[in-house]
Every structure is written in C-alpha cells, then in structure tokens.
Amino acid sequence: MPVTTVIFDAYGTLFDVAAAARIAAAEPGREAFAAKWPQIAADWRAKQLQYTWLRATSGTHCDFWQVTQDGLDYALEAAGLASPELRERLLALYWQLSAFPEVPAMLAALKEAGMNTGILSNGSPDMLSGAVKSAGIGDMLDAVLSVESLGVFKPHPSVYALVDQHFSTAPDQVLFVSSNGWDAAYAVRHGFHTVWVNRAGEPMDRLPSAPQHQMDDLTGIPDLAAAL
C-alpha cells in the first residue's frame, strides 16, 4: 500500500533539543556555562534518554518532564555548575524549543500532497503542546500522540501501535521519522517504513533491525513519502 501518513518523533527530530543550552550560553553573565554548554547539552540529552529506558524496563514510569529535569540535574552536577537559577532558566527555555529550519516547509509540502502528519513522542502532552505552539507548526499536524496514554516509553511495541489506532492505518502505510536510530529501528519491527535523521553522522546502532533510510535532515521526506 502507498504511504498515507508521515509520523515524526519530536525532540531532536522536529525540535532542536540543544537550543535551550545554546540560548542560555549566549546570555550575559553565563561565561562559565558558555565554556561547557555543548557537553552539558549532550549529557542532558543522553541521560534524558537513558532514564526513559531504565524506567520502562523497571516498571517505574514517570512523565517525560521528570526525566528531563533529572537528566539536567545530572548534567549540571557533572559539569560542576549545579546552580538553581541556571537550572530554572534552562528548564524554562526547554518549553520554547525551536524547530529545525527545514521543518515548516517540509510539513507544508506533506500537507499539500494530501498526507496525514503527526507526532509520536515520549513527551508529555503539555510539553508537546508547548513545543508545537512555540514552533508555530500546529496547523500542519493532524495529531500529537504521547506515550502518557500508555504509561511506558519507547521503544515498547505498544507505543508504535498508537499510530495505527489513531489514524486507522496499516503499519505499511506509515513513514516514521526519528533522529534516534534505535527509535527508527524498533519502528521497523512494528512494520513502519522508517527514516533515521542522522544529523551528526553517527554509526548505526547494533540492534535486531535497522532503519531502511537515512537522511542528514528532513528536506527529502516529502519526496520519499511520495515514492513509497
């Protein structure tokens, strides 16, 4: 069957998760943070993801905002910058993440082609609502689906089934796009066509399955969706 629906992971795929730290680093009086912000941003993201996996496997679910705070606390302490004021500023900026530059035109092209579009994310509903509003892309999305309706993070198989249920589609009618190679790999096992948006040129994860496509940004998504 042809693809009718294109679904995106949110953080790191549509929204630039490094933006909060990058903006804070440019603010006056943050010289100590500016010297370390790339590593802090990387540690923050890594721990945020690791904590979702650990909570999923241990059956100790919490919402994504909690693991976002926990990951930041770890990253700031590791850098020797555990400041309450800096913590609050970074968390506030996380609610205002910008979309990557190509996102609006890419989504507009999908809608013009008659595709269903949506987000499938670990993010909590209020976080996702804030990010979509901040990026100004709400009118180009047909659904924003959160794992909170299930109480378990990706890559649990039940998460990917949320797309089938919401759009009444077969898995092979869906193109799933994620900046996380592991996410795209496990979506393959559900039956989706998948794209790994590998902006950093990282090696492929060693997992039971692999994404069928790789891109270095989202520009080519409309053409691929039309060709499948």
Characterization of this structure:
The protein has helices spanning 19-25, 31-58, 64-78, 84-94, 103-112, 125-135, 157-167, 181-190, 221-227, and strands at residues 5-8, 116-121, 143-146, 174-178, 193-197, 213-215. Helix 1 packs across helix 4. By secondary structure, the protein is α/β, with parallel strands linked by helices. The protein has two domains: 5-15 and 98-227, HAD superfamily/HAD-like (Rossmann fold, 3-Layer(aba) Sandwich); 19-94, DNA polymerase, domain 1 (Orthogonal Bundle), CATH 1.10.150. The radius of gyration is 17 Å and the shape is globular. The protein contains nine helices and six strands. The model has no long low-confidence stretch (mean pLDDT 97). It has a six-stranded parallel β-sheet, sandwiched between helices.
Quick rundown:
This protein has 228 residues and is α/β, with parallel strands linked by helices.
Please name the CATH architecture of the largest domain. 3-Layer(aba) Sandwich
- Roughly what fraction of the amino acids lie in strands? 5-15%
Give the strand line-up of the largest sheet: 3-2-1-4-5-6
Order of helices and strands: EHHHHHEHEHEHEEH
Output the structural class. Answer: alpha/beta
* Domain module count: 2
What percent of the residues sit in helical stretches (DSSP H or I)? 40-55%
Output the CATH class name of the largest domain.
Alpha Beta
List keywords for this structure.
DNA polymerase, domain 1; globular; Rossmann fold; 2 domains; alpha/beta; 6-stranded parallel beta sheet; single chain
